Amino acid sequence: MPTELIQRLENAGLDGLPALATVEEDGWLLRRSQGYSRRANCVMPLGPCAGDLKEKIDHAEAIFSADRLDCTFKVTPASQPAGLDEELELRGYERDAETSILACDMAQSPIMPDGVRLVDRPDDTWLETWRALSPRTEQSDILLQLLQAIEVPAIYAVIMPAGTDSAIGIGCARAVISANWVGLFDLAVHADHRDRGHGQALAHARLAWAYERGARSAYLQVMAGNQVARRLQMRLGFVEAYRYWYRIKRAS
Description:
Layout: H1 3-16, E1 21-25, E2 28-32, E3 43-45, H2 53-66, E4 71-75, H3 84-90, E5 94-105, E6 116-119, H4 124-133, H5 140-148, E7 154-159, E8 171-178, E9 181-189, H6 198-212, E10 217-223, H7 227-235, E11 239-249
Parallel strand pairs: 9-10
Antiparallel strand pairs: 1-2, 2-3, 4-11, 5-10, 5-11, 6-7, 7-8, 8-9
């Protein structure tokens, strides 16, 4: 996988989930968001750097320690400088959460499915659905802050249960456009309503929305061992582009 494409998708992912605080130092981004989501609380070694590697890691550890956060690095095949992953392993950083980045080109727009509600901001219905379906509910107020900080076009999709007046949906997801790429994020469907095509409907709705706005390629992130999600994504035409993983030093 070309380094340029990895860096392009990693930068697009920054648009998809900003951090509450970001410091850029010598090619590395140090992102902190009070512990909500590894992606928003990690060092991202994206660009060329000139400083001493061991000193840079020491400095990152001090920054994260001051915020009482585990020092976490997001590592890709394009991470710089060379030898970073090996140095982190020598320091006792645990390897965790290997994740696959999948991508596809959109030759044409999917048909917009019926029954998917789209809004351009995370309104109460979307948020309450996410809180009901997500395992990470204790910091949903921080998630809202992160979503409100998104500066590129975004959409929030939800499927409501038929025949009821429930204020909470049975499935939700969101998408963000960065240049001509659309990132698909945060798909969740209630366990009682899975295997009924809701995940595919949420994907088609977001892709159709993005296609109308000029996006011609899509990407998403999925845990490497999530075979159920991988099967759905393969049906949608996604193929693996590369993988990333985290290196974590637990705070003492």
